[in-house]
Design goal:
Residues 728-740 have a biased composition (Acidic residues). By secondary structure, the chain is of the alpha+beta class. Helix content is 29%, strand content 22%. It is built from 21 helices and 33 strands. A hairpin with a 6-residue loop joins strand 13 (274-280) and strand 14.
Length: 740
């Protein structure tokens, strides 16, 4: 038997060493990867987390802008984003195609609904990745965002395969052109460095308060499987989105609408080059309405091409004869007003310069009171010579001219008070040469209307964090100074009222039925843009009016200016300004429930503290004081009252008394919107208020005890709907009323 012998095979041994070494190397690598926290500078835990971690962004709403009564002026609202699924793999195993099968047809139809050319849509639908593959889905940039619900429905009806919608938000301005140069607008912009979009304010309050209005997005973080589904027992980290702050304005939507409608009518009829108007509360400085023409709709910015400036604060004007109000106030307060003294009207010479009255020849020898009623320029010049230019300019400074009002808006300018030459001082007395802003006129007029106390104008009432209710900013009325005494203010109001009531007054067109108006017209020359003097002709003036009502206790002041209106042959410049002033002032006073019969003499009563007292006894006491108590509840002990203790209210005013128990509805007939809002807040009842103005009907009749939460619908009508329009009369010969 042959013995087997071991033969050493060198090749096999080398193969063993090679593969054994590779195995050991691989084994060592696996152990190292399992135990090491970092390899080649990369964190393995971070790489794994990045592969399986998912983060979903939570959008934050931009803050709302609201009026003084919580009516929305601007807010984010539901919209849609257009998305197209273009990869045919999406339709695998599907009964119907769920991707875009026909890009050409789809592009042609979509071009009818979004602002993008058909060829551009087709290019997006057929786009390829860098490696030549087809993406799963595509979007259409800004044109495919902010799709309205109606447009979404219309596209859905086309039944285009692969076209889907994702929920989105867009900035919504429900009132159209509404104080547009004040509110401004915001648009969505793509952010640098990523594909996200963000709403950014570009003008007005949207721009000025962009930081406060902008919210902070949130997120949801979690671990997922390869398909993106949440893993069992995986922790989900949620960072809630923080919505932007809400801005509450001093504007009153109802008064603003009165103003917008009146200005639109005059704009359409007279086609002026521009118009500017402000309505304010003289007791607080709150701006209740402001507008200008041309204007625009913030939703589409159509009409914005001509002017981005807020004309009330960012542009200066030569005010014309509205400045005579403050020349008069300076003379009265400094003891230099002699109403019955006389002067020679017609012309007045300063060195080598001659100024003339607006009728060129004057009215002969007249009193200073008559001169003011006639709006005599020479009368102002004589008054300046009596009181002295130093005194006059001191009062202009007290009234805030040549200075910013400090209103809570950017871009305010100061205007210029000319005083270098003697002629400048004379022309400034009647508003020519020197420049001011409309807001400066409003601020100065608050001193005349508010018994000498000049109030700083403001438009922001408060800024509130909507998630916590915290008030971030709370504006309060600010007294800027007391340029004149209360006695002077009252005397000036009476003189201003005479320009409306006197047979020779220039403001007779501004009289209201039932309310006494005080104010001053203005007819200012307009300087040529190239500096070559002034335009001429009655269609080339800035016509204005600065007035208040009621005279005895002014509740509203208003400035309206109309530049270069197209006047008829027999029309004067006060006609377009009066059309706006009368409509807005009368409707606003009625909206504020200011009864014309009580205007002449307002009797005020200071309220006592009725809380914890018997409702029955309080009702009797209030009735005896000439007030109207409204009970909210069954009676018994009063737990809340409105207005509060110590406030002075006019005779005939409503006082709300709240008690516990079932609420029985009163008759709301004739109630103002303000009283309805107060009743709704105190009662807590589900009252739905429809319309504006005064209550016309209620869905639940009076004396009904409310037992459930069914809504109570209360419908209101505006004064324009409730009161027949007045026809302005002329005399039998059709004589044109005197103009300034």
């Amino acid at each position: 038997m042959k013995k087997s012998t071991f033969r050493f095979q060198k090749g096999a041994f080398l193969m063993f060493l090679l593969y054994g070494g590779l195995f050991l190397l691989l084994f060592w690598r696996i152990v190292h990867l399992q135990t090491a926290s970092e390899v080649n500078g990369y964190s393995l835990q971070a790489e794994a987390a990045a592969k399986y971690a998912r983060e979903v962004h939570l959008a934050a709403n931009r803050g709302r802008i609201l009026d003084r009564n919580d009516n929305v002026v601007a807010e984010d609202t539901l919209a849609y984003k257009l998305v197209a699924v273009v990869n045919e793999l999406a339709s695998k195993n599907a009964k119907q195609p769920i991707h875009v099968e026909d890009p050409a047809k789809t592009a042609k139809i979509l071009a009818q609904y979004i602002e993008m050319e058909e060829q551009d849509i087709y290019r997006i639908l057929t786009r390829k990745m860098k490696d030549g593959s087809t993406p799963y889905q595509v979007e259409f940039g800004a044109a495919g965002r902010k799709i309205s619900y109606d447009t979404k429905l219309a596209i859905d009806e086309e039944e285009l395969p692969g076209i889907i919608f994702e929920e989105d938000t867009k900035r919504y301005y429900p009132n159209g052109p509404f104080a547009s140069h004040l509110i401004g607008f915001a648009v969505e912009e793509k952010q640098e460095g990523d594909s996200t979009f963000k709403t950014v304010g570009k003008m007005g309050l949207e721009y000025t308060y962009n930081e406060q209005l902008t919210g902070i997005p949130g997120s949801i973080s979690y671990n997922s499987d390869r398909k993106g589904y949440l893993l069992p027992n995986s922790e989900k980290m949620i960072q809630p989105a923080k919505n932007g702050a809400d801005i509450y304005l001093t504007l009153d939507k109802t008064i603003q609408n009165f103003l917008e409608e009146a200005m639109s009518q005059v704009d359409q009829q007279y086609k002026p080059e521009s118009m500017t108007a402000i309505v304010a509360n003289p007791k607080t400085g709150e701006i209740l309405a402001m507008s200008q023409r041309p204007t625009f709709d913030p939703a589409d910015r159509i009409g914005l091409e001509s002017n981005w400036l807020n004309e009330t604060i960012e542009n200066v004007i030569e005010p014309g004869s509205t400045m005579k109000i403050f020349t008069l106030a300076a003379a009265v307060d400094s003891g230099n007003w002699y109403p019955n003294a006389t002067f020679k009207s017609g012309q007045y010479t300063v060195l080598d310069r001659t100024i003339r009255d607006h009728n060129r020849v004057g009215w002969g020898e007249i009193t200073y009171l008559e001169g003011f009623q006639h709006s005599s320029n020479t009368g102002m010049a004589h008054m300046l010579s009596i009181m002295g230019s130093e005194t006059f300019y001191d009062y202009l400074d007290r009234f805030g001219f040549g200075q910013k009002t400090g209103i809570d808006l950017p871009g305010e300018v100061t205007g210029t008070l000319l005083s270098r030459y003697p002629i400048n001082k004379v022309t400034t007395t009647y508003g020519q040469g020197s420049t001011v802003t409309p807001m400066q006129l409003i601020q100065a007029m608050t001193a005349i209307a508010n018994d000498g106390k000049m109030m700083q104008p403001y438009v922001i009432d408060k800024i509130v964090d909507p998630s916590t209710g915290e008030i971030i900013l709370d504006d309060e009325p600010v007294v800027k100074g007391e340029p004149v005494s209360a006695a002077t203010a009252k005397q000036v109001r009476e003189i201003l009222a005479s320009t409306v009531t006197s047979d020779i007054g220039t403001a007779r067109r501004f009289a209201l039925d039932g309310y006494e108006v005080a104010g001053k017209t203005g007819t200012a020359e307009i300087a040529r843009e190239n500096g070559g003097g002034y335009y001429s002709g009655k269609n080339n003036y800035l016509y204005s009016f600065l007035g208040m009502a009621p005279v005895e206790d002014p509740q509203l002041i208003m400035y309206i200016a109309v530049k270069k209106p197209k006047l008829g042959e027999n029309e004067g410049g006060s006609e377009p300004t009066a059309a706006v002033f009368k409509t807005v002032m009368e409707n606003s006073l009625k909206y504020f429930n200011i009864n014309p019969e009580e205007v002449a003499e307002v009797q005020m009563t200071k309220l006592a503290n009725y809380e914890k007292q018997s409702a029955e006894n309080a009702q009797v006491e209030l009735i005896n004081q000439g007030l109207k108590p409204i009970l909210i509840g069954e009676g018994g002990q009063i737990i809340e009252q409105y207005p509060a203790q110590g406030l002075a209210v006019a005779k005939g005013s409503v006082v709300f008394l709240k008690t516990d128990g079932t609420i029985t509805l009163p008759s709301f007939s004739g109630w103002s919107l303000r009283n309805m809002l107060i009743y709704k807040a105190l009662s807590g009842l589900p009252i739905e208020i429809v319309g504006e103005g005064y209550v016309d009907s209620q869905s639940v009749s009076e004396n009904t005890a409310i037992q459930d939460a069914a809504p109570i619908v209360v419908k209101l009508k505006t004064p324009e709907e409730s009161f027949a329009p007045q026809v302005e009369e002329t005399d039998e010969e059709g004589e044109q009323l005197p103009q300034d």
